[in-house]
Specification:
By secondary structure, the protein is of the alpha+beta class. It has one domain: Methylamine Dehydrogenase, Chain H. It is about 15% helix and about 30% strand. The strands form two sheets. It has a four-stranded antiparallel beta sheet with strand order 1-2-3-4, with no helix packed on it. The chain has a three-stranded antiparallel beta sheet with strand order 5-6-7, with no helix packed on it.
Length: about 140
């Protein structure tokens, strides 16, 4: 019987020690990049694949950054948008205007310029539309 109270005291001291040392644990952190926008940031969203980061600013602008903070594009939506969300695929934005109780669904895609200098082509050189066909990636 004498051992049981000693065991309880020992367990209590051990528990308090474990909790106290856990509370003193350090957290390592660092600022990797600071993004500066032309207007006040209102909301942010990240694509599900983590490749694109979206910053909604006052004035209805959506700044699109790569995951490492490189500016990719800016969409000027306008209006009084105050919240942003992004689809899992990362190509649809859901922009909320709380004052008008509305949500804009905006699809977007990046247009890539392909250098066709010296490549075979059909039609006029100054055609308004260029269709590029890749048939052999080797």
């Amino acid at each position: 019987m004498l051992r049981r109270p000693f065991f309880l005291v020992l367990m209590t001291v051990f528990s308090v020690f474990c909790l106290a040392t856990g509370a003193l644990a350090a957290v390592d952190w660092e600022v990797r990049k600071k993004l500066v926008t032309d207007q006040e940031p209102l909301d942010t969203a990240m694509s599900a694949d983590g490749k694109l980061f979206f910053v909604l600013t006052s004035g209805g602008k959506v700044h699109i950054y790569t995951s490492n903070g490189v500016a990719k594009e800016t969409l000027e939506i306008g209006g009084s948008i105050d919240k942003i969300d992004v689809s899992k695929s990362g190509d649809v934005l859901y922009l909320t205007d709380s004052s008008k109780k509305s949500i804009q669904i905006v699809e977007f895609d990046f247009v890539l310029d392909v250098d066709i200098e010296g490549a075979p082509f059909r039609g006029p050189v100054d055609a308004p539309v260029v269709i590029t066909l890749f048939t052999d990636f080797q």
